[in-house]
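pinging the channel bc i need a second pair of eyes. not urgent but kinda urgent?? the chain im working w is below, pasted from the shared doc
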Amino acid sequence: MENNSYSILDRLDYLEFRQNLLILKQPCHKATVFFDLTIDIYLEMKEKSKEFSQNIRNGQPLKLLDYEKMIISIWPNISNYPSACSLIAKSLLDIDIFNSIVE
C-alpha cells in the first residue's frame, strides 16, 4: 500500500522513470505491464540497482540475467513480459554498468 510521505524528489524521479520506460520500450512491447508499477516497487528497484552497481564496481562478475532475477524477485509480475527487465536496467543503471552486464 502506498503512503503519502514520499519526497517531491522521489515522486518526480518515479514519474521520470515511468516516462523513460514508455519511451525506451519497443513498439511491440505492451506498456500495460508498467501500469501496476507503484512508487514503492520503484524505490526498492532503485535501491537494489544501486547495490547491484556497487557489486559490479567491487569486481563481482554479474550479468543481465542476475539483474533480471533481482528485479523479478522485487516485482514478480514483470516476469511475463520479455525485455521489460532490460528496459528497467537501461533506465536505472549507469550506462557503463548497463553495457558491462549485456556484453
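so The mean pLDDT is 87. and The CA atoms of residues 18 and 34 lie 7 Å apart. — does that match what u expected or am i reading it wrong
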